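Checklist before submission:
- one chain only
- standard amino acids only
- sequence pasted in full

Submission:
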Amino acid sequence: MKPCNQCGKCCIAYSDGGLSTTTQEVEWWALFRPEIASYVHQGKIWCDPETGEQLSRCPWLQAEVGSVPLKFGCTIYHDRPEDCRHYPIDLAQMSKDECEMLEPRDLLHPNRAQQRLDDLMADSRPSSRG
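Returned file contents:
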């Protein structure tokens, strides 16, 4: 498994209504990061603050100027929703999303690859293994 190369595929794929948030996150944002909370509408995240309509892309996803290949960064990385912190959960999700971290050998040795993924994500989310 390769390290994340910041291709942005996951952020782009899930930012148009594919993410959820908790009441606690929204309350925290309202208190400490109102600019983030302004993009929450009726419990849905990444909505236009003016109209309440779902945005087609995360407002916090930013392309790095001059990067070749194109790289993306999250401008609220440390305060991002748990859904973002927990991604990717498993190899099936990564495969479906065409995650560029996956290598062909990962699919040949899925248990080993899942262990590697869990190790990489240990600071962001709970292990996927029971």
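Reviewer check: The radius of gyration is 16 Å.
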